[in-house]
């Protein structure tokens, strides 16, 4: 995937024509689950809505929010000798824990890691064992609504999550909404069912939570010249801009 440096694109251009969603539009059925390709997509992609959902009366006070991680994020710095895959995966999980504690310190997050290979998921070949584990995790969690990444995101792991999410929503009869991360940039054709979301308190929490992901936004890992680092303009956009959702089901 080519990482953009400028926050512009067809999806962003289309947002001016879309309605502003209420939280109830994003949670049409009680019980929230999120399927994220990597630790950080839950924050940069939908962290504002996640914080708002966690604080809302639409979510029963004793109900956990369920998070499925497609990968452990171990592939962002493949050439780093100081952060080989296992150590990087551990770092990414610790960053995730800090981010979730900021987004909603009072929420019980239940997390399932499918540990599929970061950056190598094949959307045309969904792993049946991974799907079965995700299905069981959601089936016993009282989930009614699933959020995951948009199939228009130009990243194989994001497309894989979108396709897996579609199958889980169909099999478990869940409401399904998708959110673009990388697909909001560039000339990816937007669907007609888009809506935007902004919440002031959620935005403040998202801003702080994003700082937890130093491995993705700073030169914390400095010994891999080809390692991923989110361009500052893109990080700022994802943190400050309204979030985008598509109602799929």
Overall description:
- With 249 residues, the protein is an alpha/beta fold.
- The protein is built from ten helices and seven strands.
- The model has no long low-confidence stretch (mean pLDDT 94).
Topology:
Blueprint: H1 10-14, H2 23-26, E1 32-36, H3 41-44, H4 47-55, E2 65-71, H5 85-103, E3 109-116, H6 128-139, E4 145-149, H7 156-172, E5 175-179, E6 194-197, H8 200-210, H9 214-217, H10 232-240, E7 243-247
Parallel strand pairs: 1-2, 1-4, 2-3, 4-5
Antiparallel strand pairs: 5-7, 6-7
Helix pairs in contact: 4-8, 5-8, 6-7
Notable characteristics:
single chain, 249 residues, alpha/beta, seven-stranded mixed sheet, 7 strands, globular
Q: Distance between the terminal alpha carbons, to the nearest Å?
A: 28 Å
Number of strands: 7
Classification by helices and strands: alpha/beta
Going across the major beta sheet, what is the strand order? 3-2-1-4-5-7-6
So what's the oligomer here? single chain
Biggest sheet, in brief? 7 strands, mixed
Q: Could you estimate the helical fraction of the residues in percent?
A: 25-40%
The averaged pLDDT comes out at: 94
The 3D shape can be described as globular
Low-confidence stretches: none
Radius of gyration: 17 Å
Strand content: 15-25%
Total count of helical runs of at least 4 residues: 10
